[in-house]
Amino acid sequence: MKIIISVLLTLIVLILLIILFTFTGEPDYSLESRDIEIEWIKYKEKFNKNYEEPDENERRKQLFTKSRNFIKEHNQRYAKGLESYNLGLNKYADLTDQEYIGSVNKHVDETDLSLINDIDDHHDDNGIDEDYGNLNNFINVTDEQKNFISRNTIEYNYSYIDNIPDNVNWVKLGYDNPVLDQGNCGSCYIFSSLSAIEAHYFIKYKTLVQLSHQELLDCSHMYGNYGCDGGYMEDVYTYIMLHGIGLADQNPYLGTDSNQCKQRKPRIYVKKKFYSGKMNELELKEVIARYGPVTSSINAGLDTFKFYKSGLYYDRNCHKGKLEHGVATVGYGITEKNKDYWLIRNSFGPNWGENGYMRIARNRDNHCGLATYYLFPQF
């Protein structure tokens, strides 16, 4: 009998609370808090997060809550047709902005647009960049090797080819290696470079290979890179031109510096590297259609990029000069709503974006700087 009375009293209280909040219009903050707590627990389980210290757990929950609310508000606008893409919670939701940028590429926090423009100011009479890739700063590199890199580092010149197709997708054309996750290591410069190099190897030899990210993490320091603390895409190309690169199954990715440089056989060598810093989207389209995917720099620091889930990405705050991340641009096309896009392959794992890929606005003033600076190899 007492149990029945207790249940009835509880129901009466709940009914009164519902009536109260219905007429007063005040939100039920306790209910919202419970929802967030449940979502926080599920989030930690899904992404294998574990914070044993109560203060740290609370701090991370507050960051998660901020991300959750930002995503929720954005997706409400998306549902109303006010945004062209939607967002989703991912492993970055409980990180600070500094932690996120650090996990993207710790050393190269920002590329000044003036430095990109300076690329064209250092050519000799043959059009070769005399100081490309900081050649004079390399450790234990001979003059003969430096000359080899200089001779085979070529600025791409837009050739205005006719009949460029409206849609090109190298993933659908056979370059379908799994999308990988760089983890908490600032190694995007490696992943973006190897994605393009693997694609060009496939295009020439019709064979899919997975190259060793770990080797570059451990062995390319003498060419100006910093392991998990970031690095430069052109220096990855230089390393592979001089030393070649082994296969991933011989030296799998650990997501941290092993402090042991292992150069396993067989080796794959890049003969030449082409680059462009002219910020010309028509040129980039021609390169992708004529040759294949490229290693690109991009502004990836915004929350909208961080939490991108699907759709056509455009954020007017995305800067074409602040390039702190490396991706591979693997195609382009036109959406069903007749909007131009680039297709980029990221290194945040297959759970980010559209199975690891993003469609980003094309022909909108070099959005996010995707055409500001890019590289591609020749075998």
Key structural traits:
10-stranded mixed beta sheet, Cathepsin B, Chain A, 379 residues, single chain
Task: Describe it.
This protein has 379 residues and is α+β, with helices and mostly antiparallel strands. It folds into two domains: 82 residues, no CATH class; 279 residues, Cathepsin B, Chain A (Alpha-Beta Complex). Helices cover 37% and strands 13% of the residues. Strands 1, 2, 3, 4, 5, 6, 7, 8, 9 and 10 form a ten-stranded mixed β-sheet that branches. The chain is globular.
Characterize this entry briefly.
The chain is of the alpha+beta class and 379 residues long. It has two domains: 2-83, no CATH class; 100-378, Cysteine proteinases (Cathepsin B, Chain A, Alpha-Beta Complex). The protein has helices spanning 2-24, 29-46, 54-79, 97-105, 113-117, 143-151, 188-205, 213-219, 233-243, 281-290, 303-306, and strands spanning 85-87, 153-155, 168-169, 272-276, 294-298, 308-313, 325-334, 340-345, 357-361, 374-378.
Mean pLDDT reading:
87
Determine the structural class based on helices, strands and strand pairing.
Answer: alpha+beta
Q: What's the N-to-C terminus distance?
A: 84 Å
Annotated CATH topology of the largest domain: Cathepsin B, Chain A
Number of helices: 11
Strand count, sense and barrel status of the largest sheet are: 10 strands, mixed
The appropriate CATH architecture of the largest domain is Alpha-Beta Complex
Total individual domains: 2
User: Over the alpha carbons, how many angstroms does the gyration radius reach?
Assistant: 24 Å
Which blocks of ≥5 consecutive residues have pLDDT under 50? 20-28, 106-132
Number of strands: 10
CATH superfamily of the largest domain: Cysteine proteinases
Question: Which sequence of SSEs, written as H and E, runs from N to C?
Answer: HHHEHHHEEHHHEHEHEEEEE
